[in-house]
Amino acid sequence: MTDQRKAYVYAMVAVLLWSTVASAFKISLRYLDYAQLLLYSSIVATALLGAILAVTGRLGRVFPCSWRECLKSAGLGLLNPFLYYAVLFKAYDLLPAQVAQPLNYTWAIALALLSIPILKQRIGARDIAGGLISYAGVVVISTRGDILSLSVESPTGVLLALASTVVWALYWIYNTKDGRDPAVRLFMNFVFALPFVFVYCVVVSELRVPNPAGLIGAVYVGVVEMGVAFVMWLSALRLSENTAKVGNLIFISPFVSLFLIRVFVGEDILPATVAGLVLVVAGLVFQRAGRRVSRGSR
After folding, report:
1. Quick check: helix, strand or coil at residue 119?
2. Host domain of residue 60
3. What DSSP string runs through 63-113?
4. CA 184 from centroid of its chain's CA atoms
5. What is d(CA 264, CA 21) in angstroms, rounded to the nearest whole number?
6. Distance separating alpha carbons of residues 19 and 96, to the nearest angstrom
7. CA atoms of 281 and 137, how far apart (whole Å)
8. How do residues 215-264 score in pLDDT, each as one tens digit?
9. Is residue 293 part of a domain?
10. Residue 43 covered by a domain
11. Total domains present in the chain
């Protein structure tokens, strides 16, 4: 099998895994609150990433860590997994999965907007048009198609879902400035984030042994969303001749996710959700057309 075929396989596995996580979030939150889900899934992901590094012989790259690298890992860990997943899980707690999931996919628009003040990049007409199309989809989804009334079921949930895209975009912008092995970077982020996650869970929730259903959910989120899917995606991008060849596969995920939400979560998917998601993805595709996909982007 050629490297490009392997890249397609890894990318499709990552896309299919990511398609399941919206359902996994919503189901897990039936048994754990959002802070407990954050803590237990982060512990699982940290252990998994450490095991992956050990098996692949890269664990030794973690230890020669300078003070500057440690501070960078601590700062990035505050963004992801701590702040990003705290905000995202709370959004899923407040919103139907079919609303939270499409809103989270607008992170690429947030990335383009934040690149202006942070990276001093110019925004073009394509970026503006793509952003307007995607955020029009956000309005359709948030109002359940009743655009004129601008009535939103949970304004706080919508704001949190959109805020998660800002956090992820910030994480990605600053993460690209770290030249270490991507898997090592991710592992170090989780290691430094765990104390913050632990304290946060103690303050806003409680520490308790989760019931079996909650434990299974946390393990699934930690293994799939925070661990294996990222490793698969990074492997696909590394092996692909052109990152755009595998990068565009990510747009399959939100539509598969809606189907799984219907089957496993039991939500009736509204026509407005589908229409809004089409607008969100159309805006992202339009913004992205003619560009080379940034290596490692999700």
Report:
1. helix
2. 3-288
3. SS--HHHHHHHHHHHIIIIIIHHHHHHHHHHHS-HHHHHHHHTTHHHHHHH
4. 18
5. 11
6. 16
7. 9
8. 999 999 999 999 899 888 888 877 887 766 787 788 899 999 999 999 99
9. no
10. yes
11. 1
